[in-house]
Amino acid sequence: MSSETSSTNSRSSPTTAQSKSRGPGRPKKNPMTPCTWCAETKIPLKYVLPTQNGKKEFCSEVCITEFRKAYSKGACIQCDNVIRDNAPHRDFCSTFCMNKHSKKLASANGGSVNSNSGQSTHSNNNNIENVNDSNGNHDGRGSPIIQSGPFQFEQLHVFNWDEYLKKTGSVAAPPECFKQALDPPENNFKMGMKLEALDPRNVTSTCIATVVGVLGARLRLRLDGSDNKNDFWRLVDSDEIHPIGHCEKNGGMLQPPLGFRMNASSWPTFLCKTLNGATTAPEEIFQREPLTPRGNLFKVGQKLEAVDKKNPQLICCATVDAVKDDQIHVTFDGWRGAFDYWCRHDSRDIFPVGWCARSCHPIQPPGQKSKFDSASNNKHTKRSSFGVGSDGDALTPTKPVTVHFHTRCRGGPYINSSRLPSMVTAPSHSTLAKLCLQEILAASTNTSQMSQLLFALDGEVHIVTAAGKNFTVKIPSYLRKKGNTAMAEFLETLCTTVKSCNNLITLDPGPDNCPNCASPPKRPVETETVAPGPISPKRKRVAEQETATSTTTNDSPIPSSSTGTSSSPCPVVNQQNPSGSPQMPTSSPSEWTIEEVIDYIAITDSALAIHADLFRKHEIDGKALLLLNSDMMMKYMGLKLGPALKICNLVTRVKGRRPLSFKE
C-alpha cells in the first residue's frame, strides 16, 4: 500500500510542479453590458439615450423606440427604469425599489422604518401624489409630463437652449430664416406603412418606400428592393414623399431603386407582390411643405439645430459659421470640422432653436470640446482646421469680416476666376483667411500645384477642405492682432503668389471693372500682323494653339521689321483668356490623366465642373473616358440623365478628335 502511494505521489508531483509554473492563465472576459430594454448581451450597444440620471444603452432602434414610449409614461422613482405593466406599484418598477425607497425616505426623515413597509411606502407616495396634483400634470419624480410626445421630458432636462444662449452670449437664428413650419407638423405615420418617395441617390426616380422608423416629425425610410444600408430620413411635410398612387396620377411610373437587388425585368412582379395587401399611408397624414424664405437671412454666429449628415438620425446644436450667396456653412458646437458642411439657406436639414423640443425629437448637446464658458469663443476655431494654434480665434471681432472676389479680374495660370464666389463672410480674420484659401483651391485648375504654393506661405499650418480633399496650407498668426491691415497684406501676398491680378481678392467691393484687367491692348500692331483678316470661329481655337506652339519653339511666323518691336503672340492669348483657365490637353485623349480629363470637361462645359470630385473618386482618366456611356454614369456614378448625356456628347467629340499638336 505504501509503495502504491509513493508511486502515485511520484507520478502526480511533476504535474503539480508544472501547474504551479504556468501562472494564473487567461483572465475571464468582462461580460457585455446588457441592453436596457431587452437585456440582450451578445449584441453591441450602438444606441445611447441621455436621461436625467445618466445614459441608457440599447442594441437596436426598436429597443430604444419602445423604451421611449414606456419612459414617457413614467419611470421608477428609485432606479429611473421604465415601469412595466406587471409592476407592484405605479411609481416603482419592482418591490425591491419600492422597499429601498421607503427606507431611504425614513432615514432622511430621521425616523425608523415602519414595520409594514408597504404602508410606509403608501404614505410617502400619497405625499408625492398630492404635491404633484397641486402643481399640475407630473410624473412620479415631480417632473412635468409634456403631453405632446415622449422626448419632451428628456429634452427639457438634458439641454436648455435658453441657458446655453445666455452663457455663450449668442443669439438664435429667427424662425423666418428657415424653411420649416412654425409649429412642427404632427407625425401620424406608423412603422410598416408604405408610400412613394424619391430615390435620394437618383432623384429623378420615384420608388416605393417603407417606414422603418418614426422619430419626432421625421421618418426613416427604406426603399423596397434595396438593403438597409441606404436608409434615409425625411420630414413628414417633405415634398419628396407622397401617398401610393401619386406618381401614376401625375403621369409618372414607379421605378426600381438604384442598386435594385433583383433583375430589372422582375420589377413589375416585385412591385405587385410588394403592394398586395400592404399597409399604405393614408393621404390625410401627409403634410404640405412650408413656404421658402424670401432670401438668405442668416447671419454669422447665429445658433440653430442641424442634421448631422454623417449620422442623419441625429440633430445637433450648431452655429452659422459663414454665409456665401444662398449658402450657409454649418458647424457643430464642440466638434471639430469633420462634421461641418455647406447647405442652402432653405435646406430642410436645418431647424430653428427649440424645434426638437416642440417636435418631440431628441437633440444632441454640444460636444465635450465646447463647454458653456468657452463655446462662443472656440466654436469657429474647430470648424475646418486641425492646425496648430487655432485657439487664437477666440479674439473674435465685434462684427463679421467680408472679402470680395472680383471674378472679372485675371486669375493667372492657376485659378479659373469664374468659379470664385462674389464674396465670403466670416466671424474672424483667421477664419476668413481659411475660407479664402478654400475657395481658391476649389477654383484652381490644378489643386496639387496650388496647394504647394499656398503651403510655401509664411504662417501656422492649417488643414482646409476643398474639392473633396484635405490640403495643408499656412496662415499668418498676426491676422488675429492686426486686423484689416494684416488681412489686406495677406490678400496682396496671396495674389502675388498665385500670379493673379492684385485686385482679384480685396476687402473693399471696388469697381466692377478692374483698370488692370479691362485696359485695351498696348500693341494693336500685333493684332494687325497676326490676324490681318477675321478668323472664322471654326479655325479660331486651332489658330490660338498654333500661335502658342510657335511661341514655345521660338518660331517667328512674320520676320518683318514692323513686328520686331512687338513681343511674341503670348499677350494675345492672355488677352483672350484673362481668367487664367487651362489650355486644352495637347496629347492624345487616351493618354490624358485624371486631372486633364477634368480640365477638358470643365473648359468645354463649365456647368459640368461640379462633377470633378466624382471623376476623381472613380479615377476616370483618358482611357476610361473613352469607354464611358450614359448607363455607366447613371448606374455606377449616380449622375442624372442631363449631365450624363452632355458628357457622352463630349466623349463622342473626343473619340473623333485628332491630337492638338497637328498643323493644318
UniProtKB/TrEMBL annotation:
Keyword match Zinc: yes
Subcellular location: Nucleus
Top-rank taxon: Eukaryota
UniProt biased composition (Polar residues): 546-555, 573-589
SMART domains per the UniProt record, alphabetical: MBT, SAM
The MBT repeat ranges on this chain: 159-257, 265-366
Gene Ontology annotations of biological process type: chromatin organization; negative regulation of DNA-templated transcription
Any one annotated GO CC term: nucleus
Ranges for domain FCS-type: 26-65
InterPro entries documented for this protein: Mbt (IPR004092), PcG_chromatin_remod_factors (IPR050548), SAM (IPR001660), SAM/pointed_sf (IPR013761), SAM_Scm-like (IPR047531), SLED (IPR021987), SLED_sf (IPR038348), Znf_FCS (IPR012313)
Sequence segments annotated as region (Disordered): 1-32, 107-146, 367-391, 512-589
Bias type Low complexity, positions: 1-16, 107-135, 556-571
Keywords from the named record: Chromatin regulator, Metal-binding, Nucleus, Repeat, Repressor, Transcription, Transcription regulation, Zinc, Zinc-finger
Coiled coil: none
SUPFAM superfamilies: SAM/Pointed domain (SSF47769), Tudor/PWWP/MBT (SSF63748)
GO molecular function: chromatin binding; histone binding; zinc ion binding
Keyword Calcium set for record: no
Family: Belongs to the SCM family.
Protein name according to UniProt: FCS-type domain-containing protein
